[in-house]
Amino acid sequence: MLLEANNLFKAFRDTVVLNDISFSVNQGEVVSLVGQSGAGKTTAVRCVMGLEKCDKGTITIHGRFVCKTENGVCTHATKKELAQIRRELGMVFQAYHLFPHLTVLENVTLALTDVYKIPKTEANEAAVAMLERLGLGDKINNKPNELSGGQKQRVAIARSCVTNPKLLCFDEPTAALDSALVVEMVNIIKDLAKKDGIGVLIISHDEKFVRDVSDRVLMMEQGRITRELSAEEFKQIMRA
Amino acid sequence: MQILDGLGMTLGVFALSLILSFPLGIVVAILRLSKVPVVRKITEIYIWILRGTPLLLQIMLVFFGLPSIGIAFDRFDSILIAFVLNYAAYFGEIIRSGIQSIEKGQRESAEILGFSSWQINMKIILPQVIKRTLPSIGNEVITLVKDTSLVYAVGQNDILKYAKGVANSTGSLVPYVLAGVIYLVLTYVITKVFNEIEKKVNYEE
Lengths: 240, 205
What we know:
heterodimer, A: alpha/beta, six-stranded mixed β-sheet, five-stranded antiparallel β-sheet, B: mainly alpha, 78% helix, flat
């Protein structure tokens, strides 16, 4: 199992956001978390990423603990451990968060050269290959603000994928895309899952997109996972 | 053209103060945003005192006051210490506001990419902060040029001091006008330099 999250609890002051949820993602599998805003989808993913600390629960990524709970005591990965775990993680935010002062190419190469210490020429080659694969070969020297929303998102995907993560999370990937681009996004994500074996965890409330892209769908409501459906089951529910 | 003899003092105080106070200002900003309450509080007090009292007073305290507790600096060093501490407080506050204006997502996305806190600050946050705060920094730099005239307080001879000397001995106002023109030339050059830097770092966000 690539990602396993068990019995997560999280409250912000008096508001319970995660109320005993468990889920998992396999290699090469696309899993979607669906539900209304406020259901706890984003918090769940932020806990997996180590951006938020859950109050209780255990999360493992490839056998490494992001947090673990033993005898009711929850301990979190240290900064160092988290850095190691994050080498296997990628995240495409809803607002992309590209670095505005860097070119598209620099956005993609910076982690390679500065975190992974890969020589510049090699990093450039890897980045260009990734950008070309995502159809951005002619944009490498542009600044992010010169791109459309869909292009920015693909740069964010390239930036996350160039480091070969095993788990990639998307927060509302279709929120800013028109229907033609949604189809393209489905293809990109499926390609990454099937070809590269990346496990993909998606937060979305776009039901059509979820239907087309997911292998498994987890429905969330008020901090709980209320239903876990296979792609087939989800399609049937949508038809009804 | 005796006034020009003071130009070296004016430019020296200006350049050294700027070169030393700006990096210190970055440090002040980082300490001011520290997670450790004591560090934050001490930095706040430092900023409060340095911004809350006249620079002239600070210069005099360093030169005339510190020797009474056994710490003595010569005239030029005293001036420099006061200028650097004072301007670092101002730069610190400008940079702090810039850091806080950068959306949280920049830091979070960089964290997940694996960058260390130092790398995030230096490669991702600071370049954006400089771009956003450049107009305010430009203001401070121009103020710094004019503040150099305060060095007369501890008997150093800058442009204005020479102008005063010549004016007193000749009874003419021309030296003052000349000094004014020199300040204008200096601030004009600085304005141009900042315009060029702004053009260079200009990108839409």
